[in-house]
UniProtKB/TrEMBL annotation:
Annotated keywords: Membrane, Transmembrane, Transmembrane helix
Organism classification: Bacteria, Pseudomonadati, Pseudomonadota, Alphaproteobacteria, Hyphomicrobiales
Residue ranges of domain GGDEF in the record: 565-697
UniProt feature coiled coil, ranges: none
Name of this protein: PAS domain S-box-containing protein/diguanylate cyclase (GGDEF)-like protein
Keyword Signal: no
Amino acid sequence: MRSRCSDTTKSFNTQTFIHSGWRSVELENERGRAGVQTWQGDYRKRFLYAFVAVICTIAAVGILRLAGVGNVFDRFLWEVRFQFDHRPVSGDIVIVDIDARSLDELGVWPLPRRIFAQLTDRLIAEGAQEILFDVDFSGTSSSEDDRLLAEAFERAGNVSLAVFRQAAAFNGAFGEIVNQPIEMLLENAWPVVVMVPMESDGRIWNSLYGYDIAGMSEISAAAFLGDHTGQTGGTFGLDYSIAPDELQRLSLIDVLNGTASTGRLFGKKVIIGASAQELRDLFAVPVYGVLPGSVIQALGAETLMQNRALAVDGQFVTSLVALTVLFLLMLTRIEGWSIKILILMLTAIALELVAFQFQKSFPVLVQSASAHFILFFAALIVVFRELGFHKLGSHLAGVGRRNSERMLGQVFDDSFDAIIVLRADGRITAANRTARSLFPAETLVGTAARRVLPQELADAALAVFGNRSFGMPVSTTLYAARENGKRQFIEYVVTRSEKTVVTEGRRSETQMLACLTCRDVTEERESAEKLKYLARFEPITGLLNRNGFEEELESRVQAALQGGHNLCLVQFAIANLDQIMASLGFAYGDRVRQAVASRLKNHAAHEMTWSAISTDVFAGVAACEPGEDQIQELIETVRSAVGAMLTIEGARITVRLKFGYVLSDGRTSPDRLLKNAGNALAKVRREGSSSVLAFRPELDETLLRRCTLETELLKAIVRDELQVYYQPLLNLADRTVFGAEALLRWDHPRLGPVSPAEFIPIAEENGYILELGAWVLNRAMKEASSWNRPLDLSVNISAVQISQGNLVATVSEALERARFPAERLDLEVTESLFIDENLDLKFCMEELRALGCSFSLDDFGTGYSSLGYIPKYPFSRIKLDRSFVTPTMASKQDTAVIEAVLNLARGYGLSVIAEGIETPDQAGKLLELGCPLGQGYLFGRPMDAASFSALLKNAA
């Protein structure tokens, strides 16, 4: 029983095991069949995806090729390969350059053909094998030169000449013309084509085998020199790995002179061509930038001689390789986009290395641009497929976030303001570059704020943590003293913010921060203080300027009204400051003003406030007693203190002072006081008779009349209010009139006759003297031309006419317009003209004398040291001032000056006219002394043109 049960149990277990085994096998088979089905489905999906990727890539590359991008990239790759390869030249070709040095030494272009004849003979003598002229001989030269060149070609027997086609315009339409050498030259030479085809990028990549010229197929210069024996049509690629800079090149002038090394031309093929930039036979090429046409022809010949005529090929093979790599990458299950990108990069490098080696070994330019485009698009497909749009977007977002954080950090660090961030415990968590420079310390971040910041800043920053009602931040300025003793102003503002942080327990906490923003405003404060100072004070002298003085004057006027005392306002001018600056320079002018201001402060500042209201005018105001004794005493104090001799950098300078002042009881406005004192000063400066003048009410009338005259003078010519009067000039011996002096007169319809002494200075100040002077010259010459006999005409000229106008042109135009003889025009020059050394008076006088005019020195003896001027300037006459013609002229003292002037004039060959003769005794005495000429009321007062003309008729 026990044995049977055991067998039964064993049988049951065996059956169960077998059943289970079969079940397992069935399950494994089912899993296998499912796996195969999944793999087949995934494979079909990958295959379809790869096929679509290949088709799309082919389409994209085709579009790029149609757009011309492929050609551009191929040429770039070829050029790179050329640069990494090097082939020496054969040495069989020599280029004779028509270079800039040859043109300079020969001095002519186009070169005479006799020079080319000499060059041909020289080359044959040196043993040249072939001679090719890359020179245009299509036009005729002189018959003799053409004959000499043809004979030289005949002697040589191995000459080739350039033939080419070029664009030309015919009756507004464009076409081409053929440039061939003239028949005389072609009889003894071979024509060769020298054209080079230019590609779409403007560079020369190919050369010609030949070209159809005038119905005949002519071989190219490159093919001829390269011993090409095949077709004479089509093009071949130039091999720029052959180094054209190794070609032998000789200057034309050296070959002509025989200074080129002997033996360098023997058995050589010689190309004569232009390399000078001005001859414009230059072309853009790969690798070398720009080459002359003759060098390109030589490079073409070298290419053929070395069996390197390049053809373009390989696009299909390289593209197929790239497409295969793309297809396989789309099928593979390799994970990781970076590995696939690396595979694509290695494929691109391998393709380029193979293409380079192939180009180096065979005359083929491999087109690999399309393959590189395919690999590039493959990389894009891999990135998009492996990362996916979402992953790519997330990746780009992460990159953008990091860039933003980096940019914000850069903005924070580069901020113009100092920014410091603090935690509630008082430690600094962040500080930008400006903060680190403003608060220098070994370290700011992580340090307690109270240790490295000024106390007030630290307290203000930490105060925001305890102030729950913290409102809008307010800007505050802190004053701090630097270690060097200088002041420092820091403007700051404190703000509070919060940020959420995650603790170690992954819990979120809110952390409060204080942001301290500050800047150093020391320079701004100091600049503001400086501007505030400059608004009231004059920087050179340190005295009040006009604005500051007006404010001071306002307060003084109010004080005078309230205190019941008088006020004195003084203005004085440095009358010779312009002369000081003209002779010594502007720097000395500033030092003179500083010295004057210093003396005012030291010697004349007692109860008086001084200011510099303009460059040469100073003003002071003080309370004073009634009467003028105190003000006169004050002016004398200023004169003695300021007017004393100044010594500035070794130069001894004396200042001349002019004073104007006004007294007031406080009822006159500040503006009026300044105006009145200024009027008094202006009058004393203008008249020069005294140095001190008090304001009087009549000065206002004088000023008003001056303003009226200035306005009316502008209208005087238009209204015909001006006239030219004439005073006769006589020979004292026979009382005959030899000339007249033109004098300007103004008869105003309302003001009546106005003296020239009054309106001429006004015209000189406002520049209107230019128009008046021109008008007088034209009117006087016109009226003098109508007199019944030719007389000399004397016209006064002003310094303003020389300094501001063109006196030579004015006189020349007036002479031409009136047809007045220049030799009868005498221009009277006063001694005051010689004060201004900036006037080029001598040059002006020499130009006028060249026209024929003469000159008289007017008012001689009244002003300056006239003796030094007489030999320097082209004077013909001296006019002795009326002050020397005394009423009696009885004593030796009365006649001593006159005799001296007459002796001086005779010594220099000048004539003398005595002015102001009023009595017969004066005329007789002057004649006895030897004075031949005179002028004065005895002979006639100034009169209008009609009266003067009548005087001449009666005298006749």
